[in-house]
């Protein structure tokens, strides 16, 4: 192992209702819709990206909202819980905000940290944790104060069908450091400030099934295109079979499934989401790759209309 990822680049999930998806992640959680595009392999489906003001690596959650999608089952071979970091002292605010929207919340503890756990409208498992590290978000929406806004990912909880092999890949392939174990979980840390803390249950988790309310894959950061090409060789040398390098417009990607069943991606930090539209208006227009532009009218006619809108919870 000669390379080390600095942490999570993005996490991609399945959903059903695109407007409900936007309402939850933009309207309730206050994230910015930084890119509205399509699934390049299935142009009848949106691909929506939510993150901080720039959609920086370590802040991006993306969705394929497919109205006819089956319901998934969270389990082994998936990201089980997506963790978001909020500023120190913000957890009480978020408990009140989520409750005001009728979202059930519970508190959990791991490694002396308190997590506020809840599910999105599709059943995707999420949690918030207070962390000092990482810059505050520069995006403010829906009345969420800047000092309470979600920073980006705190990390993730990986549900593995073979925890020993998954944790071995985290350390010896991706370069994370094992920093703690509490009898139920092992904790790993990368060098980045966001998306840098990964917890893995020590017991194997029975396999889940893909569908709405589950994670499709987790992507790890590569600093640039040159390093990305090196990662392909590293993955292959480790014994996995990476895909070819794929141009995803806003980053280059390669994929492989680790031995615990989780689909891993390695994605480049550049070029970012402002490559095809101004940073000031990110996410406002449906952006298509050049090969789909001749079909824009038909694609737009086939997609359900969506809008970013501020929502009002029922305050006590």
Automatic annotation (TrEMBL):
Species lineage: Bacteria, Bacillati, Bacillota, Bacilli, Bacillales
Source organism per UniProt: Paenibacillus elgii
Name under which the protein is recorded: Ring-cleaving dioxygenase
Keywords from the UniProt entry: Dioxygenase, Oxidoreductase
InterPro entries linked to this entry: Extradiol_RC_dioxygenase, Glyas_Bleomycin-R_OHBP_Dase, Glyas_Fos-R_dOase_dom, VOC_core
GO molecular function annotations of the record: dioxygenase activity
VOC domain residues: 7-131, 152-269
PROSITE patterns named among the record's database cross-references: VOC (PS51819)
């Amino acid at each position: 192992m000669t390379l080390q990822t600095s942490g999570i680049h993005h996490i991609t999930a399945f959903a059903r209702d695109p407007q409900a998806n936007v309402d939850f992640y933009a309207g309730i959680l206050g994230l910015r819709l930084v890119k509205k595009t399509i699934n390049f392999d299935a142009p009848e489906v949106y691909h929506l990206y939510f993150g901080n003001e720039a959609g920086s690596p370590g802040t991006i959650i993306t969705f394929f909202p497919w109205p006819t999608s089956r319901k998934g089952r969270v389990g082994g071979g998936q990201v089980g819980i997506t963790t978001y970091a909020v500023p120190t002292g913000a957890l009480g605010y978020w408990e009140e905000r989520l409750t005001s929207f009728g979202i059930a919340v519970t508190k959990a503890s791991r490694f002396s940290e308190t997590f506020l756990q809840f599910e999105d409208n599709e059943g995707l498992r999420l949690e918030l944790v207070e962390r000092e590290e990482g810059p505050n978000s520069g995006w403010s929406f829906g009345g969420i104060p800047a000092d309470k806004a979600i920073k980006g990912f705190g990390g993730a909880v990986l549900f593995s069908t073979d925890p020993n092999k998954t944790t071995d890949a985290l350390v010896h392939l991706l370069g994370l450091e094992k920093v703690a174990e509490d009898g139920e979980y092992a904790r790993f840390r990368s060098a980045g400030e966001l998306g840098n803390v990964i917890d893995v249950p020590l017991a194997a988790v029975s396999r889940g099934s893909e569908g709405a309310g589950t994670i499709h894959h987790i992507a790890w950061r590569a600093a640039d295109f040159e390093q990305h090409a090196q990662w392909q060789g590293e993955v292959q040398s480790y014994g996995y079979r990476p895909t070819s390098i794929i141009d995803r417009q806003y980053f280059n990607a390669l994929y492989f499934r680790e031995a615990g069943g989780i689909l891993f991606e390695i994605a480049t930090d550049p070029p970012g989401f402002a490559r095809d539209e101004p940073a000031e208006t990110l996410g406002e227009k449906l952006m298509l790759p050049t090969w789909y532009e001749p079909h824009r009218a038909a694609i737009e006619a086939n997609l359900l209309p969506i809008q970013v809108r501020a929502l009002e919870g029922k305050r006590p």
